[in-house]
Amino acid sequence: MAGIFSIQCILAQPTKREHIETEIGKIQGKADFNPKDTVYINLLNDLARELRFYDLDSLLLLSKKAFSLSESIDYKKGKTISIMGMGYYYSDRGEHKKGICRYEDALLLAEEINKPGLILRLKNNLAGEYGYMGDYAKALSGYLESIQIAKRVDNKLMLSILNENIANLYVSQKDYKQALEFYEIVKKINQKIGNEVTSAETMSNMASAYADMGKLDYAMFNINSSITVFEKHDIRDWLAFAYEIKGKTYLKQKKYKWALYWYNQAEMLHKKLDDDRGEIDLLNGMAEAHLGLKNDSISQYYALRAYEVSTKINFMEGAQKCARTLYKINKNKKDYAVALKYHEIYQRFSDTLSRNENQKSLTMLKAKVEHEKQKLALVRENEIALATQQNYVNAALAILLIFVVVTFLVHRGEKIQKKLNKALQVKAQELEQNDSKLREINETKDKLFSIIGHDLRGPIGAFQGLLKLFKEKEIDQTEFLSFIPKLRTDIDHIAFTLNNLLSWGQSQMNGATTKPRIIPLENIVEENINLLSEIATNKSIKITSQLTPNTMVWSDANQIDIVIRNLISNALKFTPKDGMITIKATEKNEHWEISVRDSGVGMDRETQKKIFEDNHNVTTYGTNNEKGTGLGLSLCKEMVEKNGGTIWVESYLRKGSTFFFTVPKASKEYQKAV
């Protein structure tokens, strides 16, 4: 019963496709949206690929749109991927020649722009297409050739995929011994990759092979392991396949009700997929399970559907299986004329496949032997070349030895000069290093004086002037007291600036060490809201913290305190009266993502690119002419990165800005202890 609940659960989660659609919507919603932007084209191609097993017509439309936009700006990578998307469409519709034509066109472009990853994907697709057409020799040659390329460029993922496709090729030939040898290679590669989804895909294919071999315990172990991973990551096309294999395993045990249970789970997912090739085995499996339960009419319904799909995409093996099931059904119904018709179809396909299988086995063996011969010839050529090269090296070493002896005898007197030159070079390098350090120190000094002169001298000078006026009795006590609110604001600004300067100075002089510990982030946020509440009240700005209790992070409390204070202060500075500032924390796998959102004036793209740069120390004025330190955001960047996080901003003019940064989560064990 766990399967039903797990399906309902995963269907409620956002998919990768929905994430891509959201990103496309954001780009299209921008005022300066340009459909010829390569980022937009890449997203279209990504969405097309995600739709492969869900909506083939949309896959084709998106690929054509991406191709048209790529062609208009001669974006070759975009053209390559979009043509490959068209190849997917024709392949899955059973139009293999058109699929091969598209893959070959895309391969030429990929080789022209020298993209090894794309080249490998396309060669793998081409080999697979030849396999679908029954040309197993060409398929095997393509996979073996691609494996050599993948080894050369150290592409472990493609090595895993290619070896697994060869294993699947041998499974289709019922050569399980060869298939398992390749699966073992794949498992070792997957261990190095360390991706549980990749491993789960392999286990699903191995489970199918074990079920065909009759090793049902092995099949059940592998398929249960893979289902857990696919449900966790919401990978619905693979999950549908895994449910179908689990159903097949129960069918082999003649546990027809359990087989139907898992076939039904797969069928529920297939309603949201567009995968004819994957649906054939599912429908025929359901037909066989109902036949086992003597539900002949239901069995006939599924068998006819499977036969229709097999015929539509020219899938002979699927049609053969369905014809055999339909023969049994009509024989049970005593409709011998129809039974004979399907028996003849089954026999015709069996004879053709039998001849083809024998021929394919021979051609696959021939292809493998030929590939091994080519490798052996290449090894021999390399050995001859290395032997020749070794002779040259030996001769060169002999000449070099003679030259060394002569040089030693002739130039002994030059050793002292060389030592002096070396010492001079060392001194020159030391001077260059010292010069570089002095330049860095000078830049730090200039930045420090710039900030002191720009942001501290003004308010301090104003304070001195006011005291002088009061001392010389040019203003009375009442007038002096009227300046107190402004003086307090200036002194708060001076204190804030000095705090930032001290923190920045320590980090520049390598004096600030990061001492992470478990801290409740919500407390730091509340303390800073209270600290800055008077400024917020004066501007009628509402500050809201949506952090929940137990937002525990592993960070340096003082450094994160500086980050929070600067970001809230910055938001207050650029938010007009009656605005709002919201602080949130979103829990991720390994970290917390903190956001400080304001309803302020926002920033243009150029400003967003510069604000975190070390040399960006220009002070800007807020909505009430508030001053800044000129280094608050670059200091925030330093502090966040010292704590193992990243910081970025999203902003729109006249709509406001949101600053994001990440901090590591405290482990659950430590949280409980705290």
Q: Compute the average pLDDT.
A: 81
Pairing-aware structural class of the strands and helices?
Answer: alpha+beta
Helix-residue proportion: over 70%
Distance between the termini: 39 Å
Number of strands: 7
Poorly predicted runs are 1-13, 669-674
What does the main sheet amount to? 5 strands, mixed
Q: How do the strands of the widest beta sheet line up side by side?
A: 2-4-5-7-6
Spatial extent as radius of gyration: 36 Å
Q: How much beta, percentage-wise? A: 5-15%
Shape: extended
What is the number of helical segments per DSSP (H or I, 4+ residues)?
27
Could you walk me through the main structural features you see in this protein, from its secondary elements to its overall organization?
This protein is of the alpha+beta class. It is built from 27 helices and 7 strands. The strands form 2 sheets. It has a 5-stranded mixed β-sheet. Strands 1-3 form a two-stranded antiparallel sheet. Helix 15 (276-292) packs parallel to helix 17. The longest helix has 75 residues, at 336-410. Mean pLDDT is 81; it is low at 1-13 and 669-674.
